[in-house]
Fold this sequence. Notes:
Mean pLDDT: 80
Largest sheet: 4 strands, antiparallel
Number of strands: 4
CATH topology of the largest domain: Nuclear Transport Factor 2, Chain: A
Low-confidence stretches: 16-34
Amino acid sequence: MRYLIVIFCLTALSGYAAGSEMSLSGVPHSINAVQGKVSVRPEDLPEAVKATMAGNMYADWKITSAYLVTRDDNSQYYEINIKKEAETAVVNLDKYGKKID
Length: 101
């Protein structure tokens, strides 16, 4: 949770910096807050997401990486990369552990 707070603060500061619209070289530009992925440690995933991943459907799979993805409309979901032997897959879950497309 602390990690998300830090990301929020950095995002807010980058938005504040965008107001100046001048770089150090004096060339005007604008800074856009980038929507995207933030890496999340598997142990820091919400309990509902961890419970889904521990369920029968994914019991034999190992989480290799996880990301909190923010869409352009500010909705969020977790992108979880998993592996079982040589097979890999990506599972997208909301904060309640429900699968999304």
